[in-house]
Every structure is written in structure tokens, then in C-alpha cells.
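Researcher: Re-running this chain for the archive, since the previous output was lost when a drive failed. Same request as before.
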Amino acid sequence: MKRADLESMSVDKLWELHEKIAAKLAAKLAKEKSMLENRLRQLNRALPAGEVAKKSGRRPYPVVLPKFRNPDEPSETWAGRGKQPKWLTRQLRSGKRMDDFRIAI
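Model: Regenerated C-alpha cells:
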């Protein structure tokens, strides 16, 4: 279809053409999505049973034992990784040292 043909068409005819194109595009996308999902299912069947579950993208990290304990609430602990907990921040601001909260091993 030439540009001159499109320019000479009425708004109603252009809208009708737009709807036909959108419907055709949606049908083709649905067909391609279905084909890709079938291919993915075939590939998953080809893998050993445990391989599908193992692919999380992250490596497994070891369990980190806590190194610090809140003396006021012994159930609150911190392993020393990540952001400091609020209880520890409050205690440090009051003048205590990190070693005061260290868990004896």
C-alpha cells in the first residue's frame, strides 16, 4: 500500500485498517508465544528432574551464625552483615562499644 493511498483514505477506513492490523498482529503474537512455550516445555523435559529446580540464578550461601546479641532482648541477634539493627545503633549512640555485644564462642 502506498503512502498516497493512505492519505486519501477517510478516518473511518483508516481506523478499520488499524483494527485489522492490530487483530492480525495479536494473532501472530499469540501463535508465536504458544510455539515458544511448547519449545520451553520440551527443553524442560529434556533436562534431568533436578536441573530445573536448581537454576535459581544465585549460588547457595552458607548459613552465617550470629556474632552480636542484644543484652536487653536476647532473641535479637545480628550476624555482622548488612545494615546494623536499630537496637545496636541505639546502643552505640549511647556510648557502648561493639565488643560489648559480641557473642562469646
